[in-house]
Design a protein that fits this description.
61 residues, mainly alpha, 1 helix
Length: 61
C-alpha cells in the first residue's frame, strides 16, 4: 500500500456561529466531539491556573 492510496486527513475547524445547515450528521458529530475535547482542555487549564494561584497566595500570607 502506498502513501498515495490514503486520503489525507483534513483538519476540522469550527467557527463559532457559522452556518450549520450544510453539514452532515457525521460532520456535526465530529464538531461536537472536537468542541467537547476543547472544553475539557480549557477546564483542565483553568484548574491548573487556579491551583497555581492558590499556591502563590498561600506563599505570600
Amino acid at each position: 500500500m502506498s502513501l498515495f492510496d490514503e486520503e489525507p486527513r483534513r483538519k476540522i475547524i469550527h467557527d463559532i456561529g457559522q452556518d450549520l445547515s450544510l453539514l452532515s450528521v457525521a460532520e456535526l458529530d465530529e464538531r461536537i466531539a472536537l468542541l467537547r475535547s476543547e472544553i475539557t482542555r480549557l477546564e483542565e487549564e483553568r484548574s491548573r491556573k487556579g491551583d497555581s494561584k492558590v499556591a502563590a497566595e498561600a506563599l505570600f500570607r
